[in-house]
Amino acid sequence: MKKIFSYLAVAGVVVAMSACSNLEKMKNTDGITVDCTPEVLALVAGQVPATITVTYPENYFNPKATLVVTPVLVYEGGQQEIGSFTYQGSKVKENNKVISPDGGKVTERIVFAFKEGMEKSVLELRSVARYKDQEVEIPAIKVADGVNVTCQLAETDGFYSFKTDRYEDVIRMTTEGQILYDVNSANVKTKELKSQSIKDLQKALDEMKSNERVTITGTQIVAYASPEGGESYNAKLSDKRAGSAEQAWEKIAKGMDITETEIKSIGQDWDGFREAVAASNIEDKDLILRVLSMYSDPAVRESEIRNMSQIFTELKSKVFPELRRARFITTGEYQNYSDEELRKLSEEHLNNLDEVSILHVAAITEDAGRKDILYRYVADRFNSQEALYDLAVLSLNNGKKDAAVSYLNRVDANDPDALNLKGVLAMRDGKYDEAVNLFKKSNTDDAKANIAAIDILRGDYALAAVSAKGLNAAVANLLTGNVDAAEKALTCKCAKADYLRAVVAARKGDSEGVKTNLQSAFRKDPSLEARADKDIEFANFR
Fold first, then answer.
1. 354 burial class (0-12, 13-18, 19+ CB within 10 angstroms)?
2. Which one is the CATH code of 2-148: 3.40.50, 2.60.40, 1.10.3470, 1.10.10?
3. What separation, in Å, do the N-terminal and C-terminal C-alpha atoms of the chain show?
4. Residue 299 has pLDDT above 90, yes or no
5. pLDDT band at residue 284 under the 50/70/90 scheme
6. Apex 133 CA angle, 130 and 136, nearest 5
7. Beta-bridge mates of residue 107
8. What are the residues whose beta carbons fall under 8 Å from the beta carbon of 423, sequence distance 6 or more?
C-alpha cells in the first residue's frame, strides 16, 4: 500500500507540474487575435461603448485553468479598469464561458463613463491565468487607441434668440377714395367729387404732402363694372370709367403735384361682388356664394344668379351699386426714425415712443443693463409679451436661469419662441424627452435645430444628420461616416468650422488641408490648439 500511495503522490506532482507548465505557456500571446468595434473608441452620449472579440488559438488554453481578463484604459489622468470577464478550460467545473483546447472565440461588450484626458489613451486587456494556487500574469494585449470626441464639437447649449425686430426703416402707406357711377354710365357726377370718401382722400393726401418724412410714390386708378349686363359690355364700360376717372383725378389732386399714375380697368368685379355678398345681411348669401364657387364662367354665374329673381332684386339694390366704381389708391413711403434718432428720443422722450420703437432701441443697444431697463419699461407700460420673452432671453444669456423662468411664466404658454426656450432649459437639465416635446410644440426653426442637437447628445447621429444644419450637420455626418456631406454643411467662417474642416481633411488623408485649417482655427480660437494636440482625429498627422 505504501508503494501505491507513493506512486500516486508522484503522479500528482507530475500533473501539478504539467498544469503549471501549461500556465506558463499561456504567457505566449502571439496567436491571440483581438478585434474591437469601433476600431477607434468614440464618445457617445457621455459614455464610451465598445465590443471586443478575442480569438484564442488551438492548444493555447489549459483545460484545467481559469483566465480572468480585465479591460483597462490607460490615459493621462491615470487608468481605469472596466469590469472583468472569467473564462475556463474544458475540465474546470465552474460556471464560466468555456474555451476549448481546440481554440475558441469570446465577444464582450464594455461601456464606461468618459473623463477628461481619455482622448489620448490606450485600451488594453490584462489577463491572469490560474490553476489551484498557481497564478500567471499574461502580457497585456493592446485593443484600441484613444477616444474620439468629435461629438463634443456639436452645438448643444440650445438654439434660441430674441424676438424678431418688427421695426421698419420705411413704412409703406396707402390711402384710398372712390367715386360711384350710375348703372351703365361712365359719367362722373359732380356730387361724387364732393363725397366724404373723396374729402377724406384729399385730407390724407394733404397730410402726406406736408410731412417731410413721407414720399408719395404714385397713384393707381382702378375702374370696375358690376357683374351684370354681360362680360363684353362691362369690359367696355369699365374702360370708359377708367378714362373718366383719370380726368376726375386731375381735379381731385389739383395743385398737389402728384403725377405718377397707373390706370387699370378690371371689367366685371366678381372679387368685389364676393366680398360684398359675404359682408352683407342678405338672407340667402350662402346660396349666392355657392353659385360663385361652382361656376368659373362669368356668363353662367350671372345667368344662375338672375334665375334667383328675388335674390337678384336684392343684389341690384344693395350690392351692385357699390361695385359701379373707380378707386383712387395713393401709396407713399414714410421714412422712419434712424437708429441714432431713436436712441436720442429714448433718452429724452421715451414716453413718446411706441412699443415697437422701444423694442428696436433695446435690440440695437449693446449694454445689457440698458437693454434690461428698456425691456422692463415696455413690459410694464404695454404689458408686452415680446418684452417679457426678450427679458427671459436676456436673463438666460446673463446666467440668471431663475429670472429667465420667472419671465417665461408670464409669457403666453402657446408662444412658439417661449416653448422653444423652455425646451432649451429642459435640454440643459438633461430632460431630453420633456425638451423634445416642447420643441415639437414650438415647431420653429430653432426648435427643429434643437431636436437634432438632442439626437447628437443621445448618440443618434443618423437621425441628427437628416435634420441638423450647419456645424451640427457636419458633426452628425462625420460621425455617420458621410465625410462629403459633412464638408458641404460647413459654410460658417468660425473657428469651430475650420477645426471641423481639418477633421474632414484628416478623414480624407489630406495633410495640407489638416495643417491649413487647424492654423486658421487656432488664430480664431487659440484654445483649440490644446484640443487638437490630443485629438485622435489627427493621430496620423502629428
1. exposed
2. 2.60.40
3. 74
4. no
5. confident
6. 40
7. 53
8. 158, 434, 435, 436, 437, 438, 439, 442, 447, 450
pLDDT of residue 297: 85
Using CA atoms, how far apart are residues 231 and 250, in angstroms rounded to an integer?
A: 29
Tell me the Cα Rg of the chain. Answer: 41
pLDDT in tens, 422-461: 999 999 999 999 999 999 999 999 999 999 999 999 999 9
- All structural domains of the chain with their residue ranges: 2-148, 170-335, 341-491
> Are residues 66 and 96 in contact, defined by beta-carbon separation less than 8 angstroms?
yes
pTM: 0.76
Instruction: Return the bridge partners of 125, or none.
Output: 71, 141
Residue with cell string 407713399: 332
Q: Are 98 and 89 in contact, with CB atoms under 8 Å apart?
A: yes
Identify the CATH number of the domain defined by range 170-335. 3.30.1330.60
Q: Mean pLDDT over residues 165-178, rounded?
A: 93
Q: What span, in angstroms and rounded, lies between the C-alpha atoms of 148 and 135? A: 36
| CA nearest to 109, candidates 169, 53, 27, 190 | 53
Digit-coded pLDDT (tens) for 101-155: 999 999 999 999 999 999 999 999 999 999 988 999 999 999 998 899 999 999 9
Asked whether residue 98 carries a pLDDT value surpassing 60, the answer given is yes
Is CATH 1.25.40.10 the right assignment for the domain spanning 341-491?
Answer: yes
Report the candidate in 180, 184, 178, 213 with the shortest Cα–Cα distance to residue 199.
178
Q: Are 484 and 465 in contact (CB under 8 A)?
A: no
In degrees to the nearest 10, what's the CA dihedral of 528, 532, 536, 540?
Answer: 150
| pLDDT score at 286 | 86
What single string gives the DSSP state of each residue in 425-471?
HHHHTT-HHHHHHHHHHH--HHHHHHHHHHHHHTT-HHHHHHH--HH
Diameter of the chain by CA atoms? 148
Task: Please determine, for residue 10, whether its predicted confidence score (pLDDT) is greater than 60.
Answer: no
- According to DSSP, the β-strands at 33-37 and 47-56 are antiparallel
Distances (CA, A) of 183 to 179, 311, 325, 339: 13, 18, 10, 53
| Burial call 473-511: b when 16+ CB within 10 Å, e when fewer | bbbbbbbeebbeebbebbeeeebbbbbbbbbbbbbeebe
